[in-house]
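FAQ

Q: What does a record look like?
A: Structure on top, sequence underneath. For example:
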């Protein structure tokens, strides 16, 4: 779900095996269990964002625990704002310090234990006296997420060989998406459908004896993600080699602050690379906010419950895979800069179309619900139209992430590619709070979910304007 670039993209761009007339191809290398442990960890962590934040738990908090879709959207945006600020100030420094201190496993184990514990404690988030617990628990997990990524990503170079880095990185992303999809399917079949449909392959009651009246199926989902996280973090702790210890952590953090400041000062002298990083900060913030707040938005304006949101999540998770192929096709057809401009434009258009639809409106025109077919869910014209529009949104958001990495590779001088991808990663977290801040402020000011959500188009357009000043590399 997040776009956290790694060294893998840079190394892939310089791989000698891909150069025509280069040295003979080395013997085929295999992903060993140390590298597999690293990839499994990403598959353990990512379901929290995919399942809990985007599709199931945060929408439940907004519509049921908070109880007001408008205020719920504003408060979930506040959550993402504060977690983004934590990531912006702490994750880059921690990542730079980790490079100097070494010994990542112990701090990573501590952060993992805190996150998994907070996930399981979300079971107690329910309407009534315990309603307040949702914010501190979700803030702990989401706030530590960036720190967790910094530590985990810094272990990748030591987990495998340089030639296999791109493949191990890709395997981690694939396992993360697959794990999120698997938990969504389990949620639909064993928690959401039972008691609501009479299909022979669906259990008669929710698993584990859960009570839907007490919202226990929704509350068990973060517990499942917490147990999943703890379980599949174990292979990394056992198999993946740790880095050798270097500077003491106190000294490493002080030096890390200096390294981040030094890196930021270089932005002014980077020309098109610097302009591209600024453009990406703007449009990537908007795209990430669309993802993490989009579930809360549709659950509020469409009044969708657990079943609809889980189906919605499964469909969008599968469609997002197509975005990587679309991004690659556009890169080849028109070049990565123009591809990103098309992807931002399509995202902005789809976002405006999305807010033009609710239960009693299509394309800003009032319309009573029109039933299209005789099925229990997604039966109205409004629901099907919204689903189609959001599928387009998911495809082009994913495509833009892919095309952005490609353009960064093309813009980077070979001698600076590693350093510039460090800046690229920093740019991905520096303003991650901006989109949620905008949604929160506009939603509260206007008391409208639609206006609050569509305000993200301002960041998309600003990113597009800055991107026009980037000198695209020659087509290859």
């Amino acid at each position: 779900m997040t776009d956290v670039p790694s060294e893998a993209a840079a190394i892939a761009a310089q791989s000698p095996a891909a150069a025509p007339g280069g040295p003979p191809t080395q013997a085929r290398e295999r992903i060993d269990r140390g590298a597999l442990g690293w990839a499994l960890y990403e598959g353990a962590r990512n379901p929290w964002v995919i399942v809990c934040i985007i599709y199931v738990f945060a929408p439940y908090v907004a519509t049921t625990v908070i109880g007001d879709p408008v205020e719920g959207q504003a408060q979930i945006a506040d959550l993402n704002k504060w977690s983004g600020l934590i990531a912006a100030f702490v994750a880059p420094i921690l990542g730079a310090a980790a490079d100097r201190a070494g010994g990542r496993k112990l701090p990573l184990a501590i952060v993992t234990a805190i996150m998994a514990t907070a996930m399981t404690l979300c079971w107690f988030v329910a309407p009534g006296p315990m309603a307040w617990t949702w914010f501190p628990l979700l803030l702990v997990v989401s706030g530590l997420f960036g720190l967790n990524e910094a530590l985990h990503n810094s272990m990748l170079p030591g987990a495998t060989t340089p030639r296999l880095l791109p493949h191990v990185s890709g395997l981690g992303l694939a396992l993360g998406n697959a794990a999120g999809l698997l938990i969504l399917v389990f949620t639909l079949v064993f928690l959401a459908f039972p008691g609501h449909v009479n299909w022979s392959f669906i259990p008669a009651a929710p698993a584990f004896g859960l009570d839907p009246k007490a919202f226990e199926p929704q509350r068990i989902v973060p517990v499942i993600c917490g147990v999943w996280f703890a379980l599949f973090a174990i292979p990394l702790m056992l198999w993946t080699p740790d880095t050798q210890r270097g500077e003491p952590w106190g000294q490493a953090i002080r030096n890390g602050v200096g390294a981040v400041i030094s890196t930021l000062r270089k932005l002014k002298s980077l020309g098109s690379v610097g302009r591209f990083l600024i453009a990406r900060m703007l449009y990537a913030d908007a795209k990430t906010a669309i993802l993490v707040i989009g579930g809360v938005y549709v659950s509020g304006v469409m009044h969708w419950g657990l079943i609809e949101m889980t189906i919605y999540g499964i469909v969008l998770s599968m469609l997002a895979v197509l975005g990587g192929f679309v991004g690659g096709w556009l890169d080849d057809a028109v070049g990565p800069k123009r591809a990103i401009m098309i992807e931002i434009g399509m995202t902005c258009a789809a976002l405006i179309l999305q807010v033009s639809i609710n239960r009693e409106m299509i394309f800003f025109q009032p319309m009573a619900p029109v039933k299209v077919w005789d099925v229990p869910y997604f039966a109205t014209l409004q629901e099907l139209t919204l689903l189609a529009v959001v599928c387009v949104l998911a495809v082009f958001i994913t495509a833009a992430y892919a095309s952005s990495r490609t353009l960064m590779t093309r813009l980077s001088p070979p001698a600076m590619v590693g350093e510039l991808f460090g800046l690229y990663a920093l740019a991905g977290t520096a303003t991650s709070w901006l989109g949620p801040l905008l949604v929160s402020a506009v939603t509260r000011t206007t008391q409208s979910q639609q206006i609050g959500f569509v305000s993200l188009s301002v960041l998309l357009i600003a990113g597009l304007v800055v991107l026009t000043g980037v000198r695209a590399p020659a087509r290859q």
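Q: Is there anything notable about this one?
A: The first helix runs from residue 7 to 14.
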